[in-house]
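Handout, section B. The chain below has 443 residues.
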Amino acid sequence: MKKVLILAYDFPPYVSAGALRPYSWYKYFKAFGLYPVVVTRQWSNKYGNLMDYVAPSKSDKIIIEEDLYGTIVKTPYIPNLSNKLLIKYGEKKFKIIRKMISAYYELAQFIFFVGPKSKIYFGAKEFLKSNKIDCIIATGEPFVMFKYASKLCSIYQIPWIADYRDPWTQNKNRSYNILIKKANMHFEKKYLTNACCALTVSEYIKYSINQLVKKIKIEIITNGYDFEINTKTTIPQKTQSLSIAFAGTIYEWHPWRSFLEVCNSFFKGNGIYLNIVFTGVNKQKEIESYIDRRELDNLKLTFKSKLPYSELLNELQNHNILLLFNDYNILGTKIFDYIAAHRLILFCFTQDKNAVEIKNKYYPVYNSDITFSDRLQEQIILETNSGVAIKNEEHLRDVIEKLLEEFKNNKEIKCNSSNIDKYSRRIQVEKLSIIIKEICTVA
């Protein structure tokens, strides 16, 4: 059985969308004749929020665990000064100092082996001294994992694969000025030189990578839902009033303000309250402030902490409707969790003027000369009959009115989704396993 070393900074028990992709490899590789060894950092989930990302590990030693899926090498995490200041004094103090320190490490980690993430490299190197590995996969971001895989490839002559969950240089938020962009371009080209191939999740990101790293072969391996979830059966809808759920990150280009305004204006004066539940969102204070400022009194909002993936589906199924914002060229992971939950998806928006304006201002990927579909999520929703593609605010009002009437009559909202099996992560891992075995054969 060929052994695959996976460099994955985000990995369970840390709760993030990025952690689910390498975890699916770890979980299913054995089923397809590969033995996974994950090198990650120690996570504790002490805070249940973003502070977990900078919290120190309980142990300063490498911990190696084995289970029925494979081996996990957990490296210690020691916060840098910026992170220590954040933990001790909170987000509001020493902002400039913390940004300066973080900027230093963001650049220096690509030149030297410094910063908290470098423990991943040293842990992998220590493991390779006494263990044979046939292939390495590094998943980013953080994209410094690519540097570590490239260096290990050079030292041990092991082929490696670069996995792009998102664009690197092509992300405007990461290349926010010309100097930073040039630095990212330099490092991306440098460390991809000895990669045998790359993986990514969409044709658009594939195109973006090939604009910079022109000769590298790129395979599309999408995300998906957990194969072991029973998608044929769902728990009954037991809500007393119409309930809409949103889980995960809210980005700047998401028209959440428009959504809330429409919902509030529709219910205003009707004596009816709409429940909206946000789970693991990053903008709770901003949303609460907006609600108070705009006096959106007909909305009942609930905020819940991040949940492990094993608990997320049940949480989603506790509600009648799932809210999904348009990410255009980026497919993301949320849509797969949503279709697995068998709850009607409200997809906002496809043709809304205000949504287009904030997209043009905040959307993180650069426009390309070639037109790629910006309807990736919409196409899956329509293909699987999982929800409604909302055109604009007016269309949203019409749809909510119909859904409210349906809920009054039936005490539930029907979702007639179908043909979702091909979007399981297991199917995607099977495709990846074929790629890895071909690479190992050539090597």
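Note. Residues 2-78+116-224+425-442 form a domain with the Rossmann fold fold (CATH 3.40.50.2000). Compare this with the example in section A.
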